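During the reporting period, our protein records have gained a structure token line. One record among many is quoted in full directly below:
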Amino acid sequence: MVDVDGVLDLGLRMEDLQREFFDVYWEDVVLGRVMLAEPLGPVLETIAPHLTVDQLIDYWFRQDSRLDREFMRELSEIRSTGVRVYLATNQEHRRAGYLMKDLGLAEHIDDIYYSGQMGAKKPSQEFFDRVASTMSCVASELLLIDDTPANIRAADAAGWQTLHWTGKESPTMVWDALQKPPLPKLL
């Protein structure tokens, strides 16, 4: 048996990439201290000299970006009522741009707040405090919908409203449930 992703298609062992790149550099990359390509280039020269940084990043972003179109349609309907919708995510600069531009999320959301931009990542309370400050909002006006319990706990501690996403809810179901006071200004 042969693994396809990362072996047949790229000739790169994921264990090597994990050990040489993610374990060493990812924290600085996702916090925006280092641009993704800076450490990735020298790492690839060592573990996969046949690959360019752009080849790996293009492959990675395409493979790790599958959107639920029905979810996005419903989210756009909610947004059309005047509710502002944002992303709050742990991403580095290049992937944040990819999500907004290449995947077209900018058509469905108002903006993105991400760890590389904030210099802090979820689940740190610092991330949530910085987002609220950047938006000039009171924390209690913000609602985080997230699938990670640690992120929900941190947002709660920062004073945000929260909803733990289990994947069983549709955006419309969530929105209908939120129609009870107090209605958040931001989703």
User: Anything to note?
Assistant: The mean pLDDT is 86.
